[in-house]
## 1
Amino acid sequence: MEEDKSGVPQWPRVSKFILSACAATVAEMVTFPLDLTKTRLQIQGEVALRQHGSQAAYRGMLGTALGIVREEGPLKLWQGATPAVYRHIVYSGVRMVAYEQLRDVLGRSEDDHFPLWKAAIGGMLAGAVGQFMASPTDLVKVQMQMEGRRRLEGKPPRVHGVYHAFLKIVSEGGIRALWAGWVPNVQRAALVNLGDLTTYDTVKHFLLRNTSLQDTSLCHGLASTCSGLVAATMGTPADVIKTRIMNQPRGPNGRGILYKSSIDCLIQSVKGEGFISLYKGFLPTWMRMAPWSMTFWLSFEQIRKTMGISSF
């Protein structure tokens, strides 16, 4: 095992991938109900619009969560959690390893400072690569999250589990259908990681260089709070577009029926519901990203410390 300049062991990338995936799994299970709430809020606007101005089923984050518990049962708040965990094993594992690798390649300055422009490039590239590889699991997650609502509306279920969802998608549209909506997916991931990875890395090392804070959980918590807010602000519009494209019905050729592209979805959403529709679900997005980011980064840093790996 190699050591860095400070003598701290440098673990292989596979080990860092596994540790990143473990931290992401903990964060995902803790905050998944908020992700389900966010998805329902984002989808219901287009459903009401297609039904000629019918009233939205849910109003606000709390009303959505209570409605799901009352109408479908409390366990339905974790519907779709399995593919969500699968997604983060791939997504978070790849993005964290990729970012650290890019950071090593691009290089820090002599005072251990990683310039903001380099951090921004690294965060966006790492997020884009990780999300592209995880897109199939993200598609399955979104579809499974909407199954409870479909049943209440008297519609037949589209999928009966993760394995069946994958088979159904491939049988209807081929392997390429697993990457339906990958463009807005990757766009969102690039923006989110510009907010998350870049902000956390920049704020954390800024605090270490310019304040009396040590490399402890307090520093990690402050940096993760900032990263969650910035990530939610930058990623919500792309998240709305991504969710609508991935949830739309598809024709025999596997292509979407409602939207031709992410730009078309953006235009239709703004025309039909106004610009504010792009920030529909922002509150649950932020309220999910804030605890997710804090849980992930605190877990990630603590696991690294426990395993003898240098701090992020």
Note: Strands lie at 2-3, 9-10.
## 2
Amino acid sequence: MDSRRSLMSATTASLCFLWCICATVVVSNGELQRFIEPAKSDGSVSFITIGDWGRRGFFNQSIVAYQMGRIGEKINLDFVVSTGDNFYDNGLFSENDPNFEESFSNIYTAPSLQKQWYSVLGNHDYRGDAEAQLSPVLREIDSRWTCLRSFIVDAELVEIFFVDTTPFVKEYYTEADGHTYDWRAIPSRNSYVRSLLRDLEASLKRSKATWKIVVGHHAMRSIGHHGDTKELVEELLPIMKETGVDLYMNGHDHCLEHISDEDSPIQFLTSGAGSKAWRGDVDPMTNDPKSVRFFYDGQGFMSARFTHSDAEIVFYDVFGEVLHKWVTSKQLLHSSV
């Protein structure tokens, strides 16, 4: 173990360099870091979205992982999107925390899942060493792992804008409820959020992608345990509406759900059921019942497939059975359930 740690420390600098030149385009004017994922030869892009998962295989995490592998092969998976709360209960304690391999590398072993995993941090991740999950040392352990605070995945016809939502939530600063959050990189909540929103808005306005997706940990609209996140509704949602965002994907609530915005085409998709779910923890009065297209309070995950004209979103349970499917067309502006 000591020799392994020495090796990881010695290679950190070279990993940082290789990571940047091989997978990203870095722009110096404040634009979010960008990762390139070419579309398939048929012009399609497919990925799986999973959230709130890292529990060393317990709470059916391993079973969900198996079904993800099966569906990943079926849809010819390009990459995986993680909506945060990657490691429970309190993130990682360091970049050498065995929980990384015990909850990630040793669980998601299916051949179809040996693709890049693009991850944001959740509130539980901030309760540990948040910097550890961002460290290139983890990529030495498992090259699939890509985690930044905020960044872009450019898949040609689809651009996915990953947003660090935990610093938005004011109660984490004022009502920590006995938890300690790793705010080392965020000395000022207001300036951090303001800068992030400015960079995100600029990137969204520049985007020429057919489909624009924003991914964050916290729900913008939800009838689950946590419900709507007020700060995101007030500060992020207006930018999404102005810049033509199609979908918002999140975790945080340990359920699966699909809610339509009341006054825009935006669809809110929760995939936070990667392990421990909250059976029966639902508040149907949180949002207009007419806008709630689907809710499931068990374990599972979501897949997404995009072409230049169509998008297909599918939710699966812990047995890999289809619970809900939503298809929409850019050309016809028509959707069906």
Note: The two ends are 52 Å apart (CA to CA).
## 3
Amino acid sequence: MFSCNTSTSGHSTFLLTGFPGLEAFQHWVSIPINFICAVSILGNSIILFLIRTDPALHEPMYIFLSMLVASDLGLCASTFPTMVRLFWLGARELPFDLCAAQMFFIHAFTYVESGVLLAMAFDRFIAIRDPLHYTTILTRSAMAKVGIAILVRAVLLNLPGPILLRRLLFPQISVLSHCYCLHCDLVGLACSDTQINSFVGLVSILLSLCLDSFLIMLSYALILRTVLGIASPGEQLKALNTCVSHLCIVLIFYLPKLGLSVLHRVEKHSYPALAVLMANLHFLVPPFMNPIVYCIKSKQIRQGLLKRFQQKKVDIS
């Protein structure tokens, strides 16, 4: 980080970081990352289109899935532009306002995704616990209210971040740890007192990711207790099988974040390139893997895809 002697407020320039030590090969290293981004956008767009246009997919589980897909697309749109600018155009500079805006959208879409995963866990619990009243409990009105609540929570928890950053003093030029802006990174670069910012950031995480992960685990504990109360082993297996897709994407969402957290505390300075790679992948892997998981595990989505391809083939013929 540059000297704080020439610090300014709100007029700083932040320099994005690629892969330390691999600058000469940065274009080649970025190819798989850009490929993952492109496939993520394409795959999630296809899933969203299928759910929107296929009446057979207008069920609570798939409506929640469409919310998850939309948040994945938002996350890709928040991170992909700066990656392209850095890796392919060599543009490292990012003004304060743009950096703060990117930080807000990255964290907001992350919190939305976490909230949707919690809603999907509740959806699976209702489907197994009370299947006869499943559609009467999870009506379209109820799901709309859940979606609005998730979005409002994400906005309210992240809105103080950019506002409080404006009161801090930064060097005229600061070097970020990643190829995008994160709250903890910006707070760590500030020259003035950051106790309020750190406290607000901690509360934000506790009321989103930590709370959601706890409630998801609680939901699965209740699901497991309900399943164990089913007499038939075949019915038990069938009930658990409906949760496999959701459980996979929960692990895909939370495990990279856990791995990155451990890496930052143990070996961040020993392997800076690995830390940057993990930081990129922990945002890119969930949007990349979620459509793949649901295409493999969901018969309805596979049938919808097949129907679209067959319809396209007939139209071409």
Note: The chain has one domain: 13-308.
## 4
Amino acid sequence: MDVSDAATMTTMARIPEDIRHYDIFPWLPCKTISRFKVVCKKWYHLFSHDIVFARKKLQLESPISSGMVYRCDKHIEFFPLDIPGEVNIGMPDSFFPTLPDGMTLESIVAFVDGLLLVVLRKELDENPLYHLNYVWDVVTKKGHIIPGNCFYRDVGLAFDPSTTPTRYTLINIKWKLHGQIQEFSFDIYSSSTRRWTVSDHKVVIQGITNLYPMNNISIRNIIYWNSRTHLLWFDLDKDVTGNSRLPPVDEEGIMYHQNIGVARDDRGILTLTRVMFKNTINIWAFNEEGEWVQNRTISTTYLLSRAGPGALRIFRAFLSRGGDVLCVETQFTTTKRKLFSYNIVTGEATTISELKSSHRQGPCHYIFLNHNSLIRFKQFS
């Protein structure tokens, strides 16, 4: 520790702890926080896991934070993915949200900067009409049911605590097929009015390939949907929608699963991770020139050997951190669902969790990557 850091700590010691933690420390640059993080266990926990500090920090600038949130059998876990030399901010400990009476947690839909969007269902009731969306704030520990009955897998959550720490927006994308024309429309929910409205915007794509959305992410009040061959987006600030073609699949073979994500939280890069039937994972990145570039091809043979024996039922990969870590979700007929991380550079595989439930659900219903939605990011034009 240098002299300036020592002088700063001496001054800080004379200030009440709650003022230091939540009114002063959030103003510090991330490089300073990364140095202070190793001073003591209390500060390490504050900078790494205190979600109140993270919310304060988000209101001032874009911090570095990435990781994975996944549903276990009786609670929700957060697994931080540290970037060497930098700092994870505000990855809370395990928890289970307070739910309305008679409701149980069905799946995770999104986690954006401390705001959790999940699906609930009535206990002992398998009727899908009783599935409801529920938003829970990790900081305030308060939640409420979203009115209406939207198809929960495709709902995008936009939340910018730097400007509106209590307001968020949901967008439900709806897909219709008219012959060889595929139409996407949007319903918008505002937490200010607690109502859904129908947007005038539509996206029309010609073709017979099923473009039903597979997953979505939120970056700076723009929600992006991965729609197999196209990327769709809705910009809430500009009130515009659009679409762009993803890299063609024909040259790669048959696709098993794909996800869009974000790598490098200091400068956001949109990524596309494809799991192919030819025992490979292909990773694409959207570069500064506005083009998709394939920058990695990984064999799945080793990853599957780590997962377990039997016939493969589920295999999904999510690129995270600085683009060098894959979070992998697998399930075989003879094993339970397993989550582990794979370091592309070192080849090291680390088991994160084994889930007791063997119930097969759709993409991201157990696992969801968390990233800082306020990162600096090259947007689509």
Note: The chain has a mean pLDDT of 77.
